[in-house]
Batch of 3 targets.
Target 1
Amino acid sequence: MRGIAVLKRLCAGFAFGAGLAFASALAHQGLASEIEVLDARLSATDDGVALAADFSFELGPRLAEIVTNGVPLYFAVEFELTRPRWYWFDEKTANRRLELRLSYHALSRQYRLSTGVLQQNYPTLEEALKVLRRVRNWTVVDRSVGLSEANYEAAVRMRLDLALLPRPFQVSALTSRELTLESPWRRFTFRPTPAMTAPPSAPVEAREPKEAEQK
């Protein structure tokens, strides 16, 4: 009987230790797959309101292998601007998305970062990631949008868009966090300056001198 009791205690201790190891592995894996929003700020430009943001993350071995083998990775930077209203639903002032494509070209042995029609090549993956982690001069609120002199809630995040990966990788992402890379929403209060709330100036119409009109 004593031997059976000792065996039960040993099994319980082994199960507890295995559970801790498994939980620790999951926690480590979760930390490795997170993006951190280090900083986010808004400023006035001629086109409206622009966002500058800094992110911190590393590509895990699996994602680095995927992009080096020629499969592009698509990162999405998402921005929302909301004006809280106590008497009604919050006003959704802006909702923007910036798509950044990271790829590798075997012929030139260079990594390429592109958005829209703009693209730039880099000799190493780390140099491409250094640029990917910094968003600058991204117009998130057009000049034509009327902003009020009130407090707004701004939110920004970055994530790897799994929906744009080939189907086999999408299936693998369901069971493996190695292919998951995203940040939580970073929220901050934003109050427009008088320059941001001023309506855009109307174009001045050219008119001929009165003498020319009389002729």
Note: The beta strands are 36-45, 48-56, 73-83, 91-105, 110-115, 118-122, 134-142, 152-160, 186-190.
Target 2
Amino acid sequence: MALLPTMHPKKIFPSGKMPNLRYELAKLRMDYFLSEFSERNWANKKKPPPRYVLWDCTRRCNLSCIHCGATKETYSSELKTEQIKDILDDLSVLKVDMFAVTGGEPLLRRDLLEVMSYAYHQGLKTGIATNGLLIDHSMAERIKDANIYSVQISLDGLEQTHNRIRNNCQSFTKAVNAVRLLTKFRIPLLSVATTVTTRNISEIGELRHLLLQLGVKLWRLTVVMPIGRAQAADVSLDSNQLISLFRFIKENDRKGIRIYLGENLTFLGDWEKKIRGGPMICPIGFLACCIGVDGNVRGCPEQPDTVDTREGSLLENSFTEIWQNGFKRYRNREILVADPYCAECKSKFDCYGGCWVMRGGEQHCIYRLLS
């Protein structure tokens, strides 16, 4: 068999820069999905179901974190067990892939694992984002028995820093112990989430070493959202710190641990293909949405729960009705016309206007953040 001739990469790519092929393929898939979705939207045809639905299940919490966004509303009531089970029936019929729970602290709901087990038996993958404070051996075993697919533990620094951010002297020890216990019980997808702020960016290298020692395989880094307590805490990164964070991810991703940047920075400009394996768009109305504490549906848990952001109430309409008929401002890409800066931007079809929550604090544009 004759061998095919080979060429040096520099002859194929004269600039010497190899393309991020994984990113380019993912971008093609995303563009195709968005094109198909938009055609259905404009033709008023049936839209595909969301890939994942988030349940903002409670605003009760056992911590008081300085950057918390869940303090922006209070509720007089929460969805009852049977009400959320009825909603899960609808999600199952729709063939939603993932049902994930956040808060507040989700494990403060006594019925949470009953609900999650029900979701599993309805054919949904399930996930929990938790601070880990309530996870002892018994709780870890119950999480395993409920067939939880994914658990995300929040860890925002080494012991002194994490405890100071979380305003609790036991929070670090409890979070680390939760990681160890969930690893022991072999939760399929165990990850750690860190909100990177001015208070902890100097420790992320040391925190990485700790996560490697704990055997963590997936680490989600996010920047702080300009909501809740974070609005007054002055903990957002400046441009130099953002670049430092991007450089850290570029240098350390996939070296014993998968590191990825959360979706509230949807597009990273020149850094995008250097540290991501695929595009990150705001998923509201296309890939995801949020069920609120009292049954109102909105885009995501971090969005303020107001009349302007609600798409409908599950106490009045089915999830299917709300998903098919709501989310027009997102699906019609109204912001790309309403915002004159976005309208003229060269990257508008990479960014699509950025994260809606970050936009509320004028932190949605990577070019402005890095300028």
Note: The first strand starts at residue 52 and ends at 56.
Target 3
Amino acid sequence: MKTGLVLEGGALRTIYSSGVCDGLLAGGVMTDYVVGVSAGIAYGVSYISGQSGRNLEIVTRFARDRRYMGLGNLLDPKNRSYFGLDFTYRQIPETLIPFDYEAFAAFPGQVEAVVTELASGKARYCTVPRDKEGSSLVLQATCALPLMFPSYCIEGVECVDGGVADSIPYQRAFEQGCDRVIVVLTRPRDYVKKADRSLPLVLHKYRKWPEFCRTMADRARCYNACREELFELERQGRVLVIAPEDTHGVSRTERNVEKLRLLWADGYRQAADRMDEIRMFVSGN
């Protein structure tokens, strides 16, 4: 039996998923396949490397650090992202809070990140390379929120954040042969997505890519339909969904460290409280 883990994005709200993943590590649960979107997989690689607490340390140390995120980074022509790219994707994992590349490389399963192709507006599922440079490029691309990041060339195709085309890629997990899939959301179960207020700006900026603009304009409807289908699969027993009861007002660019700690703790507690259920689910019982 092949098990999968699906990690929704949400920038710093994804610290909830890190709490869940740290709880899974504490319970000895490691899936065969991991796919994530944006910060979901950028944080999720620390689950694969077995580094419990690493993401919590990153956000609590650097959420208020302008090198990590801030408007100055976005206005810097050498950076062009709200997040400091060299600081976030090189200095932190290589020096400040080292990522265990050897443990990541030794993981025997599959690891994929979702990006959205600008030309087609469709999702592309990229294997996350096990080397530093390759993994950094893919993880930046999957996190490339429209308006907040540049686009990235992946396998010859210009791409941005995977959440535009496939925010919760549980169907990809089934396509890759998973029998049981754990899905970690970053919004409460009763959440209903509305059209983003920045949509007019996004449509103007990316007007050269009409298919992408169509996908972006239809994103809220597709997202809500995706969640409805997910909850139906949960009722059928095919997926196990873990979702926050309350996000405590944590935003995508949250700087309040105590709120981030609280959201991480909620995720950890939910995983711990449901550990018997999770183990039975992944074992097929």
Note: The beta strands are 3-7, 33-37, 110-117, 123-127, 152-154, 157-161, 180-184, 239-242.
